[in-house]
Amino acid sequence: MTRASYPLKLPASIKDAAARLAKEDGVSLNQWISVAIAQKIGAVETAAEFLKQRAGSAKPSDMLPFLDRAASETPPNGDEVEPDRSF
Predict the structure, then answer these.
(1) Residue 27: partners with Cβ closer than 8 Å, 6 or more residues away
(2) Residue pLDDT, tens place only, 5-41
(3) What count of other Cβ atoms lies within 10 Å of the Cβ of residue 55?
(4) What are the backbone angles phi and psi of residue 12, rounded to the nearest 5°?
(5) Which residues of 39-52 are buried (b: 16+ CB within 10 A; e: fewer)?
(6) Domain residue spans of the chain
(7) How high is the pLDDT of residue 43?
């Protein structure tokens, strides 16, 4: 396995929490951070693949009939779009 180094700057509170958890796991901070990054990569890639499979051959334009029906509904309280924002 090829290794690469990366100078990582963390807020002290995050570094302290990671160091504490690494110690509880009986591993070095470097190993703990490496595993945490690997877990995050796996989660993101798995989610992306899941969503791609769920979408199948759907296109964004396939959603227009649903959006057209929803346009007349009042958004739930707290879910309104601010008047000065456009999407």
Answers:
(1) 35
(2) 999 999 999 999 999 999 999 999 999 999 999 999 9
(3) 11
(4) -55, -40
(5) eeeeeeeeeeeeee
(6) 13-70
(7) 96
Q: What band does 75 get if pLDDT is binned at 50, 70 and 90?
A: confident
Query: Does residue 56 or residue 25 have the better pLDDT?
Result: 25
Residue given tokens 């029906």 in the structure block: 69
Which amino acid, one-letter code, is at 82?
Answer: E
Half-sphere exposure in the Cβ direction for 17 (13 Å, CA): 6
User: Collapsing DSSP states into helix, strand and coil, what is residue 58?
Assistant: coil
Q: Which amino acid is at 72?
A: S
Element (H, E) at 38: helix 29-55
Please give the biggest Cα pair distance in the chain: 57
Q: What single letter denotes the amino acid at residue 16?
A: D
